[in-house]
Write a structure and sequence with these properties.
The complex is a heterodimer of chains A (248) and B (227). Chain A is globular and about 65 Å long. Chain A is an all-alpha fold. Chain A has eight helices and no strands. Chain B is built from eight helices and no strands. Chain B has 227 residues and is an all-alpha fold. Classes of the chains: A mainly alpha (248), B mainly alpha (227). The interface between A and B is medium-sized, with 20 and 22 residues.
């Protein structure tokens, strides 16, 4: 008799809840460690930029949050799509859990971009393709969250949110390729999977460390939020009742 | 005996909606009046200097058309949802996507096409030349059906919800932005001497993409709303 792996063991809210509770602190710790390393490299090791001076160092937050904002939207759309297609509750709960963190990342990206733009370009905001499409991404996140908030029935909210998330996912490639397709003030991609990066190695290291820090934070925040959503949605189920008893 | 075919069903749904719109002309006219008033507010707000108005004219007319089109969306499915017709449509043997396409087409003929026809008059208010007016007409002709199609998705998702119109705007306006950018951009490109062909082609592409995908997404959203 061979033991088979149950790939779907954690697809149930009752098994995922304790797993998320065990994993989240580790991701927070990882986020803190990466952030410390990244900020150290970013502020003390990376050299002064030849053209931009010291103000460029906001890149270490701006790029990481912008990457996460796009990545988290795709993840949100993925889980929402899985929930819509397979009618699984936990998938939709994950999508709802990711949304606020994604919106936060977009907000941070827009604001740090503005703080960088003022000394660099002389303007807090320009209506070029990348900034506009990132702003649209924020509206898409907020639209997703508002739609789910406006629907009382949780299952209808899941499915309706899935439709709007999937319709909006077309915006993410637009953001990514906007600097190639249009003449934009925002600089083009310095980091690519196929070419060597066009920036100093220490700057790249700092940026990647901060990106990992934001990623770990996003995972930790999503896991905790998913736990809250599970508690809220499944409050009438037996396993939560047992949870309460075992606490006391 | 075979039941009504696809074309019969489409003709029936579209005809019914058009007839209803003709009988309740006030709905159509209100949208049109809103369009004219909004477009007239901008010169009152920014001052009557002709050069400024000529520059912002296409954008203002486009935004006003967009807002008017969005206001009209609430009517697309609401009455059918209220009296149960929508549920019967979802149960019909014909593909729901095609029936949705019929409804959106009728809705556009009743709400979008009047906007396109009146737009040149508003263009005169902004002192746009004949060439600019023609490009504006073409861009609205290509753009307003796209707005109706994309808006139908939002209208289907927000059926029967509190927060109604504002929530619909929040969902649908981010998706409208590409159409607005290329639509207003077409007129500006024409005025700058670059030719509007590129922008109009992209508008056409958006229309084709919307024609293919929006009815399907709307049908999915309708089934979610009705069940």
């Amino acid at each position: 008799m061979t033991a088979k792996i149950n790939w779907f063991k954690y697809s149930s809210p009752s098994t995922f809840y304790p797993l998320a509770g065990r994993l989240a602190p580790w991701f927070f710790v990882a986020a803190a460690l990466f952030a410390v390393a990244g900020i150290y490299v970013g502020f003390f090791v990376a050299p002064t930029d030849a053209q931009q001076g010291e103000a460029y160092r906001i890149i270490f937050i701006h790029v990481a949050s912008a990457w996460m904002s796009m990545f988290l939207y795709v993840i949100m759309a993925f889980w929402a799509g899985v929930g819509l297609a397979f009618n699984t509750r936990l998938s939709s709960m994950m999508a709802s859990a990711v949304a606020p963190t994604g919106a936060l990342m977009t907000f941070i990206a827009l604001w740090t971009g503005a703080l960088w733009g003022k000394p660099m370009w002389g303007a807090w905001w320009v209506w070029d393709a990348r900034l506009t499409s990132e702003l649209i991404l924020l509206f898409l996140y907020l639209g997703f969250m508002s739609l789910q908030a406006a629907i009382d029935d949780a299952r209808r909210a899941d499915k309706a949110g899935a439709v709007i998330a999937l319709v909006g996912v077309v915006n993410v490639p637009i953001i990514y390729f906007s600097v190639q397709w249009w003449n934009t003030l925002h600089q083009g991609a310095s980091v690519s999977l196929t070419r060597s990066p066009s920036m100093a190695a220490t700057m790249l290291v700092g940026m990647l460390l901060m990106a990992l820090a934001f990623w770990m934070y996003s995972i930790a925040a999503t896991l905790l939020r998913a736990r809250c959503i599970i508690l809220d949605r499944e409050r009438n189920s037996e396993w939560i009742g047992q949870l309460q008893e075992s606490r006391q | 005996m075979s039941g009504p075919g696809l074309l019969d069903a489409v003709r029936c749904v579209a005809g019914r909606d058009l007839l209803a719109a003709l009988r309740r002309r006030s709905d159509v006219v209100t949208t049109l009046i809103f369009f004219v008033i909004v477009a007239s507010l901008f010169p009152l707000g920014v001052g009557p200097e002709t050069a400024v108005l000529r520059m912002m004219g296409p954008g203002v007319v486009w935004v006003a058309a967009l807002l008017a089109s969005m206001l009209a969306l609430g009517r697309l499915f609401a009455s059918d949802y209220a009296d149960g017709t929508l549920e019967q449509l979802t149960l019909a043997p014909q593909p729901l996507g095609m029936l949705v396409l019929a409804k959106v087409a009728a809705h556009w003929l009743a709400s979008g096409l009047p906007l396109v026809i009146v737009a040149p008059l508003l263009g005169f208010q902004f002192d746009l030349g004949t060439d600019a007016l023609l490009i504006l007409l073409a861009s609205l002709l290509l753009g307003t059906p796209t707005l109706s199609l994309i808006g139908a998705i939002g209208a289907a998702l927000t059926l029967g919800l509190r927060g109604g119109g504002a929530l619909l705007s929040l969902l649908v306006l981010p998706l409208y932005v590409p159409v607005l950018i290329f639509g207003a951009g077409a007129v500006e490109a024409g005025a700058a001497g670059l030719g509007a062909a590129a922008h109009l082609s992209l508008l056409g592409a958006l229309l084709l993409i919307a024609l293919v995908f929006a009815p399907w997404a709307t049908a999915v959203a309708l089934r979610i709303a009705v069940e």
